[in-house]
Design goal:
By secondary structure, the chain is mainly alpha-helical. The protein contains two helices and no strands.
């Protein structure tokens, strides 16, 4: 399930192997950690 998971084209094949709940949960977690790490990186460099 690695790759561009925000893309619907990538989510459809993954939903065949995993249930839609799992794909949606993975997408939400990946998005939240991306935002949190971006904020942390901005705070670390003092740009936020």
């Amino acid at each position: 399930m690695m790759g561009q998971i925000y893309d619907v084209v990538s989510m459809v094949p993954n939903s065949r192997f995993f249930k839609w709940k799992g794909v949606a949960l993975y997408t939400v977690i990946y998005f939240l950690f991306s935002v949190i790490s971006g904020i942390f990186y901005g705070l670390l460099l003092g740009e936020l």
